[in-house]
Amino acid sequence: MTDRPVRVRIAPSPTGEPHIGTAYIALFNYLFAKKHGGEFILRIEDTDATRSTPEFETKVLDALKWCGLEWSEGPDIGGPYGPYRQSDRKDLYLPYVEKIIENGHGFRCFCTPERLTEMREAQRAAGKPPKYDGLCLTLSAEEVTTRMAAGEPTVVRMKIPTEGSCKFVDGVYGPVDIPWDAVDMQVLLKADGMPTYHMANVVDDHLMKITHVARGEEWLSSVPKHILIYQYLSLEPPVFMHLSLMRNADKSKLSKRKNPTSISYYSALGYLPEAVMNFLGLFFMQIAEGEELLTMDQLAEKFDPENLSKAGAIFDIQKLDWLNGRWLREGLSEEEFRGRVLAWAMENDRINQGLKLSQSRITKLGDLPDLAGFLFKSDLGLDASSFAKVKSSPEELVAIFNEVQPSLEKILEWNVEAIEAELRAVADRLEKKLKVVVAPLFIAVSGSSRSLPLFDSMAILGRSVVRQRLKVAGQVVASMAGSGK
């Protein structure tokens, strides 16, 4: 522990749909701050300029607010240590990088991406872990100056000790010992002048006076790099705490390829934020059977950071369903329940847009449930018979879904125009008419061949729900192809 006032942060990257794992880590930090009378800060880490977008940043903030989390400093409300978006802090990092170079702890690297790729492939072929081989480590000052003056692209890498190991005490794992020969010469400053995650992370945590860094266990191997940067800059490091990853029931890593992982998915399906936070909070405490239903204040009261499990947090969707059902029945009054239902139906303007699209397609109001009901369903109940009227063979359907699913992931701004453009591009790549490609997608998204316009429906449902429905449909057509149906 530290005797400084506790300050913790959550620092998501706006590069995709906000992950349920982000809520898990954010909740821990929030409860930790509550437990110690400290401050919980939100920082946006958007050093990856090619993948970070304002849309995803907005989604991150909206998702964390939906979870019921409140921060005392952040990009939306400001604070004494701002700005709280790394792209707005670009000029802050260079002096720290230059100090590392001047003190002999960093060096300029001119290796091209092609050379680095060849190097890593050769290392893998030799059965070695891929890491930088130090080619530019011994360049003379004169050669560095000459190559930079010629405009040759360059990055800055950190030097790593050649002997011994990095020893530190983790707040969850206890004493940790990682040999230096397992640590790569990390890039600190990219060719475009932006810092890498590792460099910006350390500088920002220092300037924002962060006392404890609680994050997922996948970052445990990065601690030696971070500790070195702190040492190279003569700065005091925070206390590191690495939380066990959330896993599926089979102990595999929770990933969107296997299960829905977006916070927006659980919101869209009608899970209550109180239930989701309750479910995640139970991973951080030991409670007796029958005491599972806990508010945020009760979670903070029972939170025990000194008694955390390293066994792994199992994301049991059945338990989440059970908790959500209890919250709906026991946690809401009749009036609150009605309000939540209406708010859920209005999410993403779903009911208004659904009614707008339905008006010209029905003959009586009783047609609405069959036509637009898919916008509100949790499960469409797809099976092989759902695709009986589609003219494409099962093998062709598999090819369509295999092409569509990753293609839609590339869309940065999820809207009707972008969805249509991408699906037209898919049809061109598959050398099929657009109607052949969209026919099975109608069924995958709505459960019916007669539905609302596909592109509009996908936009209303949102990326995370569409992703899951396409995955389920893809599994159905794959089983059809495997069985010869």
TrEMBL record:
State which Enzyme Commission number(s) the record gives: 6.1.1.17
Alphabetical UniProt keywords? Aminoacyl-tRNA synthetase, ATP-binding, Cytoplasm, Ligase, Nucleotide-binding, Protein biosynthesis
Q: Where is this motif: 'HIGH' region?
A: 12-22
Question: Where does this polypeptide localize?
Answer: Cytoplasm
Highest taxon above the source species: Bacteria
Q: Name one GO molecular function term.
A: glutamate-tRNA ligase activity
Chief location: cytoplasm
Binding-site residues for ATP, renumbered to this chain? 256
User: What region holds the Aminoacyl-tRNA synthetase class I anticodon-binding domain?
Assistant: 340-472
Where the record annotates domain Glutamyl/glutaminyl-tRNA synthetase class Ib catalytic, the positions are: 6-322
Q: Name the InterPro entries for this protein.
A: aa-tRNA-synth_I_cd-bd, aa-tRNA-synth_I_codon-bd_sub2, aa-tRNA-synth_I_CS, aa_tRNA-synth_I_cd-bd_sf, Glu-tRNA-ligase_bac/mito, Glu/Gln-tRNA-synth, Glu/Gln-tRNA-synth_Ib_cat-dom, GluQ/Sye
Q: Where is this motif: 'KMSKS' region?
A: 253-257
| SUPFAM superfamilies reported for this sequence | An anticodon-binding domain of class I aminoacyl-tRNA synthetases, Nucleotidylyl transferase
Q: Which reaction does it catalyse?
A: tRNA(Glu) + L-glutamate + ATP = L-glutamyl-tRNA(Glu) + AMP + diphosphate
Q: How does it assemble?
A: Monomer.
Spell out the family assignment given in the record's similarity comment. Answer: Belongs to the class-I aminoacyl-tRNA synthetase family. Glutamate--tRNA ligase type 1 subfamily.
Query: Which purpose does this protein serve, as stated in its record?
Result: Catalyzes the attachment of glutamate to tRNA(Glu) in a two-step reaction: glutamate is first activated by ATP to form Glu-AMP and then transferred to the acceptor end of tRNA(Glu).
Instruction: Write the protein's name.
Output: Glutamate--tRNA ligase
Organism whose genome encodes this protein = Pararhizobium capsulatum DSM 1112
Lineage, highest ranks first: Bacteria, Pseudomonadati, Pseudomonadota, Alphaproteobacteria, Hyphomicrobiales
